[in-house]
Amino acid sequence: MNLALWIVAGLMAAVFLVAGSTKLFIPRSTLAEAPGGGWVGGFSASFVKVLGALEIAGGVGLVLPAALGVAPFLTPVAASGLAIVMVGAAVVEIRRREYAHALLNVAYLALLVFVAWGRFGPEVLG
Fold first, then answer.
1. pLDDT in tens, 4-53
2. N or C: which end of the chain has fewer CB within 10 A?
3. 37 φ, ψ (degrees, to nearest 5)
4. Per-residue model confidence (pLDDT) at position 1
5. Is residue 108 within 8 Å of residue 9, measured between CB atoms?
6. Long-range CB contacts (< 8 A, 24+ apart) of 58-66?
């Protein structure tokens, strides 16, 4: 179980580091033109940048605290925070009738809930 948690946390960390970096460093207008990027039109550029920074912090928080053994309780906290972000993302995508993207967000949500559950519960010290 511990190995599965590490694999899923690492995968999710990579996803959110890339997604967060994209939101933080690519202009909002460019993001809006990308496939699946139309959602940024409903939010301010500042919101998109802050969201990107939070996703990067969450991605780091999924792996680094547990890997270093420094404040490992932050790993399930990061997973929980990113899960909340994925709920919001799924809601936005459903409202936009972009169901394939919403399904991907729900899949990420499930993986993040698995990490949060595993690190809060059965594999707290793993």
1. 999 999 999 999 999 999 999 999 999 999 888 889 999 999 999 999 99
2. N
3. -100, 5
4. 87
5. no
6. 58/16, 58/20, 58/82, 58/85, 59/12, 59/13, 59/14, 59/15, 59/16, 59/17, 59/20, 60/13, 60/17, 62/9, 62/10, 62/12, 62/13, 62/16, 62/115, 63/9, 63/10, 63/13, 66/9, 66/119
Question: Contact, 56 vs 90, CB < 8 A?
Answer: no
pLDDT of 36: 85
What pTM was computed for the model? 0.91
Q: How is residue 45 written in tokens?
A: 């550029």
Q: Are 1 and 123 within 8 A, CB to CB?
A: yes
Dihedral of the alpha carbons of 120, 5, 75, 67, in degrees to the nearest 10:
130
